[in-house]
Amino acid sequence: MAEDWQAGGFGLYVHWPFCQAKCPYCDFNSHVVAGVDQERWARALVAEIRRYGEQTGPRVLGSVFFGGGTPSLMGPETVAAVLEAVRETWPRANDLEVTLEANPTSVEAGRFRGYRDAGVTRVSLGVQALDDESLRRLGRLHSADEARAAFGIARDVFERVSFDLIYARQDQGVEDWRRELGAALALAVDHLSLYQLTIEEGTAFGARHAAGGLKGLPDEDRAADLWEVTQEMTAAAGMASYEVSNHARPDAVCYHNMVYWRSGDYAAVGPGAHGRLTLDGQRWATVAHRAPGKWMDGVERTGTGEEERTPLSHEDRLTEMLLMGLRLREGVAVERLDRLGWDPAPARELAEAGWLRFEGGRLAATAQAWPVLNAVLRELVPG
Amino acid sequence: MTDLARIRNFSIVAHIDHGKSTLADRLIQLTGTVAERDMKEQLLDAMDIERERGITIKANTVRIEYPAKDGHTYILNLIDTPGHVDFAYEVSRSMQAVEGSLLVVDATQGVEAQTLANVYAAIDADHEIVPVLNKIDLPAAEPDRIREQIEDIIGIDASEACLISAKTGLGIPDVLEAIVTRLPPPHSGDREAPLKAMLVDSKYDPYLGVVVIVRVIDGVLKKGQRIKMMKTGGTYDIDRIGVYRPAMQEVAELGPGEIGYITAQIKQVRDTRVGDTITTEKKGTETPLPGFKPSIPVVFCGLFPVDSSEFEDLRDAIEKLALNDASFSFEMETSAALGFGFRCGFLGLLHLEVIRDRIEREYNIELITTAPSVVYHVHMRSGEMIELHNPADMPDPTIVDHIEEPRIKATILVPDDYLGDVLKLCQDRRGIQLELTYAGTRPLVVYDLPLNEVVFDFYDRLKSVTKGYASFDYQMIGYRQDSLVKMQILVNDEPVDALSMMVHRDRAEMRGRAMCEKLKELIPRHMFKIPIQAAIGGKVIARETLSALRKDVTAKCYGGDATRKRKLLDKQKAGKKKMRQFGKVDIPQEAFISALKMDG
Predict the structure, then answer these.
(1) Is A177 on the interface with B (CB under 8 A)?
(2) Which one of B550, B560, B566 has the shortest CB-CB distance to A220?
(3) Shared domain check, B463 and B497
(4) Per-residue pLDDT tens for B150-176?
(5) Do B560 and A274 touch (CB under 8 A)?
(6) B459 lies in which domain range?
(7) Whether residue B149 sits in one domain with residue B65
(8) Radical SAM core domain: from which residue to which, for each copy (chain A) (predicted)?
């Protein structure tokens, strides 16, 4: 019998933990440092890839994703070295997707061709907003014009381009967002990630919000209105959501992220990176040292950047499969849930009430359930 | 035994913060009763809560030896009485056990309502009273004005008041001398008569068992004696006898006029009653001391553990506290909202707070306290009368003839500027004005008020409308019929028993609306909309609707988030288990805690 992860595929995540400046809303593992020894980092990332390669053995790799931090601060030769190691380690799918997250500045756009030559097939641009005032409030270093220019270059250089927008920002009304989203959809874009601004603890926004700052953030009702407008407009433009916050033309779905949502396996290298690996029938959660220095030290001195490796129980796996899978319009294969020994009773009850639907051997959230998916999950997951 | 003429027994009457404990400390210190190195603040207040709040809950006593200017050494026995209206009966017994009082008034503040209540208790006990003006060293002190105020309001001569600073020690020798020269010795006392002693108070000591504070009237208390409590009928053998200095010091006997302690293998404080008469089992006195009253709880509320698994711990804590407090009553209560807990009776709001604080602090149990309720007299059509301690037990209104509620006489002293607000507050709370006079320059307001309005949030409101400048005291005056109804709160059409309350019909709608609005804020949105209603009988008097949840989804959830989101979900599931379920509605604990808070 095929192992469960194969239903989700196999990908590699590479974390580049450095940024030019920390964005006030971002709770990702990112660090601002003066100079980075790119060769040394390339060697360490390569060493980690080889280590995972030995553990997984030869399996077909479907995607590589450079995330961060700001991976567009990597030199093209660093990216090339990593991808070279990838080619030596795993057999690749014919349509291997290689995504790199990039800031839409002119400097970074200047490296796009280099990335393409190294093997990158897709970029995801952190555009975030289409007006300068909003960009300034989000602490971004680029202007709206610069972002449009970078997008144009990316379109010319790469097969596939996606960009991110953050909405439900301070003082953003429904009409403001309608105009902005309309402008975004008018660009020749095949994939869009549309995130509602979330105030995370441990960020600058989190601190300001806790101190009573950040006035004008939408309340729940306005956030819901903004969500509804988003669903309507993207569907009308042929870019309906395939995941809670992700929209694509049918042929442009991001394979790499699908690995996460479909509970596939992913090796993860770089500081703070989280992976999931099924080895000898046991699924493991791996996590690397978060601090760049500590991670580097681990790789160079002890031969591993991993801090912890935790076996996942059937219950953990079930929770993750529902938590991740119901974010997808396609939902989760019931057969996989069955194999993990789930109790379908709560799901049936929720289906009865119109929150979930069983269809074609799959369990999926209904349109009314999506904006309140966390509440549905609280009813659904075991424990 | 000491010659009666060389004994002075006294208490100190003062408002909170006017310096009672500091003065007591100074008296003890100046007479060398405690070595300098053992001095600590508020020597007599034993409990943390007493020290922290500056209040006295249990009576304490200390024996001071004072070599007076006349060349004789006197025995001064100070009884530090509880100072709060909740303990009015205990105060009256302590007052009966001594012959005089020091009336301590802050020379910068003047007389407060609480001082009045206690000074009247002293006057009722026929005390000689020596006024003492404290904090005389402060620039804001106005001794002349305060002297006048004391004469005006209390009607005692204040011309020879002692002027002191308990903090610096200024004037303390004068106070000691005044105790000896101006307070009377014990009025009578016959060493040969049958034993007659007053049980002033008692407390539990983990090593000694119950320690009883006694004042001997006639006869002699001795070690080994077999004694009898005349009210409870209990008989015991005295195994220790002594005095507080303020540490315990054993003595051979206590004779007429003396104050001290005994231990007698008494297991629980509950077996002793404040105000009871102690005599010998054989050949004892026939006539008990007058004035004994059993203490009766007047305010009730439910105490529930926040974590329902702590119910047995709560039972244990309550039983232990009850052993040490005869005035505190409890019985088990089950609430659909709050699970298992106890319906507890208290002497008043302070007593309630003290017990609740002690459970939370000493036993480490987090509590939900339901809205305090008074005892209603429900007269049935059948002629039967039921004492209603819990609104949940209210009988069907169709078989009720009428309901009576307890009323109090409230005495409020308030600066002129806030008089209008205070009068309005009293009127709003269904008060009937009895008096409006001036205590010197300050208005003195006396109102007849329903106790249930007072336990709700009266004191907090009073503090807030007067910016803390009013002082307030009350006494129970009896029961009166009024138009009272039980108001229920329904969440998603299910009654939430813990939120039921008795209210006056005219105030029901306002109270109901406030409660519904508050709950709408406190209950999180669910996946469906939830009606929140206040109802009397079947009739809805207020209604709010909590909209259905519209937006709760994580924006970003990728490979690096799976672990964190899974753990978050597990945590939320665990949190959900701690919520109270009403039909399909989960109500968080905090919602009950906030809704039941007495801030209206």
Answers:
(1) no
(2) B550
(3) no
(4) 998 888 999 999 999 999 999 999 999
(5) yes
(6) 376-482
(7) yes
(8) 4-240
Identify all chain B residues contacting A374, using CB atoms and an 8 Å cutoff.
552-554
How many folded domains does chain A comprise?
Answer: 2
A375 touches chain B (CB under 8 A): yes
Location of structure tokens 């790499």:
A256
Expressed as residue numbers, the domain containing A361 is 313-383
B496 residue type, one letter: V
Instruction: Report how many domains make up chain B.
Output: 5
A294-298: average pLDDT: 97
Question: In this structure, is residue A107 part of a structural domain?
Answer: yes
Token pair of B187 as six digits: 């009025």
Interface of A with B in 315-334 (CB under 8 A): 316, 319-320, 323-324, 327
In chain A, residues with a C-beta closer than 8 Å to the C-beta of B525 are 220
pLDDT average, residue stretch A329-341: 97
In the structure, what pLDDT confidence band is assigned to residue A353 with cuts at 50, 70 and 90?
very high
A244 interaction partners in chain B (CB closer than 8 Å)? 553-555, 557
Does B53 fall in a domain? Answer: yes
Q: What angle, rounded to 10 degrees, do the helices at B311-323 and B349-362 form?
A: 120
B75-79, B328-332, B384-388, B435-439: range with lowest mean pLDDT = B435-439
Please tell me the distance from the alpha carbon of residue A86 to that of residue A78, in angstroms, as a whole number: 13
Give the residue-averaged pLDDT of A25-53.
Answer: 93
Contact assignment for A260 to B562 by CB distance below 8 Å: yes
Whole-angstrom distance, CA of residue A173 vs CA of residue B420: 47
Chain A residues within an 8 Å CB radius of B547: 221
Instruction: Tell which of B118, B148, B182 closes a domain.
Output: B182
What distance in Å separates the CA atoms of residue A298 and residue A305, rounded to the nearest whole number?
A: 5
- Would you say B156 and B147 are in contact if contact means Cβ atoms under 8 Å apart? no
Q: Does B572 touch chain A (CB under 8 A)?
A: yes
Whether residue B556 and residue A259 make contact (CB cut-off 8 A), yes or no, is no
State which amino acid sits at residue B222. Answer: K
pLDDT beyond 90 at B481 = yes
Q: Which of residues 540-569 of B touch A (CB under 8 A)?
A: 547, 549-563, 565-566, 569
Q: Average pLDDT, stretch A273-301?
A: 97
Whether A236 and A328 map to the same domain: the answer is: no
- pTM, two decimal places: 0.70
CB A135 within 8 A of CB A173: no
Summarised one tens digit per residue, pLDDT across range B352-369 is: 888 998 899 889 998 888
Instruction: For residue B590, give how far its alpha carbon lies from the nearest alpha carbon of chain A (Å).
Output: 19
Same domain (yes/no): B391, B412: yes
Residue B262 sits in a domain of what CATH number?
2.40.30.10
Terminal-residue alpha carbon distance, chain A: 29
**Shortest distance, CA B579 to any CA of chain A (angstroms):** 13
In B109-195 the beta strands, taken as DSSP E runs, fall at: 128-134, 162-163
The per-residue pLDDT for range B178-235, each reduced to its tens digit, is 999 999 999 989 999 999 999 999 988 888 989 999 999 999 999 999 999 999 999 9
Last residue of a domain, one of B450, B482, B514: B482
Residues A275, A271: Cα–Cα separation, whole Å: 12
Q: Which residues of B are annotated as a binding site for GTP?
A: 17-22, 134-137
From chain B residues 482-541, the ones with a CB under 8 A of any chain A CB are: 525-527
Q: Which of A227, A244, A260 is the last residue of a domain?
A: A260
Of all residues in chain B, the one with the smallest CA distance to A194 is B555
- Convert the pLDDT of each residue in B270-303 to its tens digit: 889 999 999 999 999 999 999 888 878 888 999 9
How many angstroms away from the CA of B122 is the closest CA of chain A?
Answer: 53
Length of chain B: 600
Angle at A140 between CA A137 and CA A144, to 5 degrees: 90
Q: Name which of A128-142, B404-418, B569-583 the model is least confident about.
A: B569-583
Contacts of A272 in chain B (CB under 8 A): 560
Q: Residue B303: inside a domain, yes or no?
A: yes
Task: Mark whether B513 and B541 lie in a shared domain.
Answer: yes
Domain-located, residue B291:
no
pLDDT at residue B52 in the model: 61
Cα separation, B372 vs B301, whole angstroms: 5
Domain identity same for B84 and B223: no
- Which of B553, B561, B576 is the closest to A372 by Cβ? B553
